[in-house]
Amino acid sequence: MNEALRLYIGRKIGRGQSRAWCLRSYLSSLLVLLVASALSFVLVFVASMTSAIDSTLQRLGSGSIAVHEEIPENLLAPDATICRTETSGGLLYSEDRSILVYVKGVEEDYLEKNLFSRLHLESVENTTSLKGIWISRIMASRLGVQIGDRLTLMLYDSGVNRVRPVLLFLEGTYSSGYNEFDEKLAYTSIDVTDGPTIYEVRCSDVEENLEALRARGIECESYRTLFRTVYENLEVSRRLLSLIAVLVAVLAGFFSVSVAGEYIERDRREIASMLLLGVERRSLVKAYRLITIASVGISALMGEALGVLLSFLVSPILSSLDITKYPSLQNYVIDFSVKVPFATLVLLFSALVFSSYISLRVSLKRSVFSSLASALR
After folding, report:
1. Largest Cα span, the chain
2. CA distance 366 to 285
3. Residues 6+ apart with CB under 8 A from 33
4. What is the average per-residue pLDDT within 139-165?
């Protein structure tokens, strides 16, 4: 490629041109930008929500690993912690309302140590002799109670084979952002409950600790096993969405043929001039292929950057919503930190540019020849 053609490509890409010229030049690539922006926003949003649901299942379900018997700490990795819990079902009463609850009896520092940042706890000091209870803000709204009120919990006591009432002090409320837990899960002191004991293991490497426990014949399950259906559905949905996004990007890439045709029609006088200067037609075809690919690539990069930026802007707005007022949001986690799936975004960009290149290689030569004949006439 000679120096004159390099200079020509640089000028048509926008080098040395005014902002107004660049805006007009890249206006035809607006569709690519919008498609890339929408797809990247959806991918970031779904990846972030999937990660938040996975974290919620791990923390609120039964820890990283649920063990049904007492275990020595030296079997686990150094970063692992063990929390003893008891679980039971019950009926929770306020003055005039009641709801069914799944009660988890926990030790004193369980919430603060393991779940404080995840649950957004609000509490007051318990100055009474009553045991405390923590319920979700959704449950508090349905019961019509506030922090500091008294609640009655009806529990089945296996020791005396009957239901017993327990008066509790509403010490705090939480919000996990996931309706599946917030509708039913309540926390209280382990001294109140009378149900099966589960030792929750919290750790970073679940598989390593599972192998260590099972090697000693200890019965245990990972949180992914306990919530297998939910976890598998999340994985299938995420992969399916990524595949759909790539297919849409491929289809959008074929739009670059019309972008190239518009560039050629716009520049037909310059094309005729380049021919008169002795530039080969094949070189011009290659030049407009590079110009169009550069335009599509820049638009795709800008679109992905815009989609990621929108994700960071929308996330705090969504997390501030009152989930009780929006029933359609109650099956999703709306309070999450943004996770950018860089590998998927790179795949999306590659699919867009590659499909553009293939479609241009097939169709651009004919378009150039047609425009060259028109320019020469």
Report:
1. 103
2. 9
3. 299, 300, 302, 303, 306
4. 86
pLDDT at 350: 85
Closest CA to 105 of 130, 80, 87, 91: 87
Is residue 59 scored above 80 in pLDDT? no
Token representation of residue 314: 């929308």
Cβ-proximal residues to 344 (8 Å cutoff; 6+ apart), any chain: 43, 47, 242, 245
Alpha helix (H) ranges present in 77-193? 110, 116-119, 137-143, 179-182
CA-wise closest residue to 143 among 195, 84, 97:
97
Give the model confidence (pLDDT) of 81-127 as tens digits. Answer: 888 898 888 899 998 899 999 899 988 778 766 665 667 788 898 88
Helix/strand/coil for 328: helix
pTM of the model: 0.70
Closest CA to 40 of 308, 240, 239: 308
For residue 110 the two structure tokens come to 């369980």
Query: How far apart are alpha carbons 315 and 48 in whole angstroms?
Result: 9
Q: Which residue has the tokens 């609640």?
A: 151
| Residue 367 banded pLDDT, cuts 50, 70, 90 | low
Reading the block at residue 230, the tokens are: 């939910």
CA torsion 344→319→331→152, rounded to 10°? 150
Tell me which H or E stretch contains 90.
strand 81-93
- Residue corresponding to tokens 């670059």: 256
CA 370 centroid distance within chain? 47
